[in-house]
Amino acid sequence: MTTHQEQEDGDHELWARVRSGDRDAFAVIFDRHAGAVYGHVLRRTGDPSEAEDLTSAVFLTAWRRRREIRFDRDSALPWLLGTANGTVANSRRALRRYRALAERVPLPPEVPDHADEVARRLDERREAEALHRSVARLPRHERDVVELCIWGGLDQQAAAVALGVAVGTVKARMHRARKRLGGLLLAEGVGARSDALEGTR
Asked: How far is residue 57 from each of residues 34, 86, 125, measured CA to CA in Å?
């Protein structure tokens, strides 16, 4: 059972207990950071169902590798988002292998969605998909910085920890990514709002 004290403890204190197998402490870590991890994965995949599954996979990995976790100050979030990047990459590789197999194996015809349902889903996801496409067109090293700093809410020092690079490298990549992403969003017909492109310092 999670106590009020556990809710107030920092990640370092909680993880000291997680390392010894304390599931209640791990539940506090999950409640504290699952939303940020899910949002980060959703923006990389564009699929809510897949993002939910991959978020679960991230925390399963965190539990299995709990003795290896690296912290930025008193937060486990940079490590979790770095792990999320690897989880998404692994999922994409598996999907590519599946598609290659599917091309060689006859599959039953797909049943098309009802037109109204398709229209509803397109209305709900049009802007998210435009943003996802724009970010996907960035070079990989710039895309990682955008996803961690702008969407993941990390400052540049925390992003540097998650990516394993110097802070100066993160700053340079962010500068280039802001300019490139602004043009891509305008080309997609999505206004490049200044607050959406303002990364953390």
From this structure: 11, 11, 24
Mean pLDDT of the chain: 79
**CATH assignment of the domain containing 43:** 1.10.1740.10
Q: Characterise 21 by phi-psi region: left (phi > 0), alpha (psi -120 to 50), beta (else).
A: left
Provide the pLDDT for residue 7.
65
User: pTM for the full model?
Assistant: 0.56
Structurally, how many domains does the chain consist of?
2
Here the CATH number for the domain that contains residue 137 is 1.10.10.10
Boundary of a domain, candidates 107, 134, 160: 107
Q: What is the pLDDT of residues 51-87, one digit of tens each?
A: 999 999 999 999 998 888 777 678 889 989 999 998 8
144 shares a domain with 90: no
**Final residue belonging to a domain, choices 88, 107, 126:** 107
C-beta neighbour count of 131 within 10 angstroms: 19
pLDDT tens per residue, range 85-96: 988 988 877 767
